[in-house]
Structures are given as structure tokens and as C-alpha cells.
Amino acid sequence: MAAALLYRFVQRLLRAAAPALERSASKVARGIAGRSRSLRGLAAWADSERDRARPGLWLHAPSVGEGLQARAVLEALLRRRPGLQAIFTHFSPSAEALAARMGGAWAGYLPWDLPEEMAPALDAVVPGVVAFTKTEAWPVLVEEAARRGIPVALVGGSVPPGARRARWPGRALLRPTWSRLSLACAIAETDAEGLRWLGVPAAVVHVTGDPAVDSAAERARGADPASPWLAPFHAEPRPTVVAGSTWPSDLRVLLPALDTARRREPGLRAVLTPHEPHPEVVRELLADLSRRGWRSASLADVEGKGAVGVDAVVVDRVGVLAHLYTVADVAYVGGGFHAAGLHSVLEPAAAGVPVLFGPRRGNTRAAGDLLAACAARDVHDDVGMAEALHAWMGDAAARDYAAARAFGYIHAHLGAADRTAALLDEILSPS
Fold first, then answer.
1. Sequence-ordered alpha helix ranges (H) in 317-415
2. CB 3.0–4.6 Å: which of 141, 197, 346, 379 could bond 384 by disulfide?
3. With left for phi above 0 and alpha for psi between -120 and 50, is residue 130 left, alpha or beta?
4. What is the CATH number of domain 2-209+415-427?
5. In the predicted model, what is the mean pLDDT of residues 194-211?
6. What is the pLDDT of residue 296?
7. At CA 265, angle to CA 267 and CA 323, rounded to 5?
8. CA nearest 236: which of 283, 282, 293, 297?
9. 226-412 maps to which CATH number?
10. What is the model's pLDDT at position 170?
11. Is 293 left (phi over 0), alpha (psi -120 to 50) or beta?
């Protein structure tokens, strides 16, 4: 009870401080502004467009990776329930662009997790199910849904080692929340065990796999070689390393390794995708590459010319990385050299590309699976990364074997989105 009261106090404090916090141009300010406007937008949509004769779904994901999982499940569920009206909410500003492409009836930020916000939101939307993705369940939203008899589900559920919700005070705060779930779809048996330990009723826990695999496979299949961001690379084939979702901590290791690899493989080309490709980030990376002796250009420049013509390309927008992996010989996935954790290794694997990443991968089950399948390597410094690049770039047979193992892993784990959608369909109202 004390943890719940403290939680609500903090939520109200943040909401009261929102007008002042919104004045900055930071990512946090964008998120706060979005949450402050969300209830009004959601209520306006419901008032004009919600058809209560049709089943409804409220689907939530914290950020982009979880949002891609959610989209795969939503698409599978829409195939079963074409009349479904789905809304999608997110927490992180990083998911804004994805939210616009979710394919639901409405998308936006999650309102403040307070009774005075969640109660009217639920009364407006009248969902048949509220579903959370991977790691998140918001206590007040779950409590208000349960009060109205609305089933609550978790899809793509994961409990990675050291998860904050498994420690105090997270476990104390969320135990009543987990106990109210009507369905929990876990990625693997170890996740199912973790969910039961957190307090999810054993009878509602099912192992269904990772919907992110289906999402990654779909994006790889959707890559069009004739698109303006891929055609120039296909027209000028060269040994290519595509580095995705990189942070400064990655670049401190990656750039020296690429310098070494290029001396061994003079025709090497690098495609670098910052996790947050703001104009100043792109400019600084282009300048750094120039100082290192690379001929470089932004992806926008490459598209404008219709030709690559350089040794390094810096991607200056989001939404194309999954397609760019299809022109890679080797991929590097960022996030493994800082505390926030590794980004998705499934996208390069789905493109049939062997994968490199840093040592901090504890939050990503698929990374360990790809290592075990000999489809990936983890590296700890620039020397190790340069050696790993050379091992694959300089040995076509070894590279092809790792690529086949990566693609095979994806193929073997397809179907989670459909399995999850089938279980959600069972608890949706029959409308």
C-alpha cells in the first residue's frame, strides 16, 4: 500500500511539474508534453470514431523495439478480427514515428498513470482487452481495467536477469498488478518462470515465443532493392559493414576497428546508423570519418545522387535500418558498450547477416541464442572487433556459414505473433 501511494504521489508531482518541464527541447520534455495531451486526444477520437459495436484493443509498448513486437501481434490479430478497433500507446518519444505506422485506429502517448486519467480513458475507449508488451505493465491502468472487468494481457513477456521490476521496490509495487493479468505470453520458459515468480497466476502463463522475430522477418522481406536507399548499394557492390543503432560508446570501439579492417580489406565500405540521428550527430560523425581518412556522405546525399561513390555512409533518419542490413556482409548492432543494453539483433539475422555486438547483452535473449548458433560474436574492444571483422570479411565460407545460421535461427522461431494473437482472440469480447 505504501509503495502504491508513493507511486501515485510521484506521478502527480510529475504531472504538476509538466508545464515547466515542457519548456526545454529535450527528449524528456517531448515525452511529458505528449503525456499531458494524450487523454484529450484519446477522448476526442473515442467521441467521434469509436464504434462500440466493434471489439476494441488497447495495446501499449514502452519504446520502438517493444512497439515492433506489438505491431506484429496487432497485424496477426487484425487478420483474425478485421473489425477490431485498436489504439496504440507508447511511453518513449523514440516511438513517435513508429506509432504513426502502427495500423491501429489511434496512436499516441500513454496518459498519466493516475485514476483521474486512466478511468476516463478506459470509459471512452471501452477496450475488450488491455495488452502490454514485453516488460511493462502500468499499475493504475491495470487496476482500473480490472475494476471494469476488462481482461489485461502481457505479450512477448520477458524477465531478463537483473530486471528492476524483480527487485525492491518494483516487485512490491507491481505484485498486485501481475496478479491481475488474465493472460501472459512469455518468450521462453525461463521468462514464464520469472513471470510466475513476480506473481502472475500460473494458469494464465503461456510460452508463445518472441513476436519480434516475426516483425524482423517481415521487414527483411519488405526490403525493395529498387528503393532509393538501397538501389545505389546494389549498383556498386562492395564488402560492406552495416552498423545499426550506434551510440558514442559504440563508436569509440567501432571506428578504430573499421580503420584496421579497411587496411586489411581496402574495398571495405561502412554504413553507420546513429541510434538518434539528429543533424548535429550526423555532422559530427561525418567530420570524424573525414579526419580518419574516409570519404563519407549522408544517406540523403547518396539518395540525391543515386550513387554511393564513398567509403562510408552515415544514415540520417530512422525507419530504413532493417532494409539496409540486407546490403551488409557483416552487421554490428549498437548498445552493447553502455548500461542501457543491446538493440535488436533480430533485424540483421533476418537479413541473413552475421552479427557483432558489445559485451553488455544481458537484456537480449536473442543475442545469446545467436552466439550459441555460431551466427554472432561478442567483442570487448577495438582489437577484438577488428579481428572478428577480418575473420568474416576475409573468409567467405566462414561468413556464409554464420549468415546461414543467423537466417536459420529466424526461420526456426517464426509464428509467435500468430500464437499470441490466437490467445488474445480467446479473451476478446465476442463482438
1. 321-324, 346-350, 365-372, 382-393, 396-412
2. 379
3. beta
4. 3.40.50.11720
5. 96
6. 97
7. 60
8. 297
9. 3.40.50.2000
10. 67
11. left
